[in-house]
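Intended use. Records like the one below are meant for learning the mapping from a protein sequence to its folded structure. Do not use them to infer anything beyond what is encoded.
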Amino acid sequence: MRVDPASAEGSKSPHIARMRIQAEEADFGDHMREDRAVKAIMPALKQDSLGFLRLNLRWLSAGFLMMLFSCFGQTFFIGLSANDLRAAFHLTNGGFGGLYMLATLASALTLPWFGRPLDRLPGWKVVRFTLPALALACVFLVAARSVFVLWLALFMLRLFGQGMMSEIAFTVTGRWFVANRGRAMALIMQGQQLGMAVLPLLVVLAERASGSWRAAWFASAALIILLGLPALLALMRTPRVPQSQERKIGIRHTDRDWTRSEVVRDRVFYLLLAGTIIAPFAGSMVFFDQDYLIALRGYDPVVFAGAFPVMSVATVLFGFLCGRLIDRFGALKLLPYFCLPLALATAALALIRSVSGVYLFMFIFGVSNALTTTVFGVLWPEVYGLAHLGRIRSLVLSVMVVATAVGPGLSGFLIDVGVSLPDQLLSLSGWCVIATILLTLAARHVRLRAAATMPPQHLEG
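Structure written out for the chain above:
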């Protein structure tokens, strides 16, 4: 007999109390039995990496390209022109950081509304209006002659680049893949890593060759329209339907599909957010103020830009490992370790003044990126289900976008009042330790909640 979760909630009966005790005691055993069941099924279904790529190249390529083109709205890319924009509009670090924060906050507020079509329309139809809007934002940035137009360009870059392109990639990939969701997320994230590896150096070289920072933005708009749009429309018109065997072995810790309003009322949701927003917060601070850090410590801009490939290589290598671990154990098992690499990375950049500190930071931050992006891609469907994934993920992404807005704004303000970026990074390292504790508690609560809604015979079995 299956216990109705709704009737079990808040019940004080001895049977339910006994059931919850059994759930906690059987948690480890249940996972071991689940693991043995998966092992029994996997030999018939398991694909090697090349086979997985060959069978799913169309959909993995689409996700890869979406993450690549999201780079044009990411902080690291916009930050490459930060000094030129500040000089053109006579803004201080705090002034430009505040403007960027307002633009990003506005994009975060509107993102949930733009994310709604993903629950009703095919992904390619959403891409069809997102990419032209992103290209238009690149042109607006170059053509801006007032602070308002600059703000509008930043708003559109953040909304349609970092926000919508990432949102579409994560949502459609989460639906296309079930048993190999972790591996798929790890593969598509390499699009963003490719962008982070090559774009900073290409932008620096383009500026030196042309003598203007605007050339790179014109080229970006052309690349989006001429390459990105037709390629993605061609790849995404045929959706992937997960096989029935994949649905059976997909790791799942939720007994039902949650609505967005239910997620908002769930206390665990806020514990998860407290840990997951720290990585985008820290990354936006460093990448937005990279020109400030270069001037503060006297780094060569080309040498600094050369550190980005180190981060990308680390993210690629550890991303595949994290994808395998997630498919094997689930995202919740990795959640307690989510913030530890970031704690080491921020401490390294804060304490090591030589350029070697930058390269060490980029390497460890790459490890953190691998863990963050793969876990982020899989965690929400694992905890809250698939039926309302578009709306739930747009809500989560909005909060993360807010974190990337607050990071540069707060950092610029603190720099203006005399608190250096290295000192700020030391504080972030401490936040990572606190977040680790919160994520450990959240993962345990989700497992126990799922176990408490299992049938009694399964708990005893």
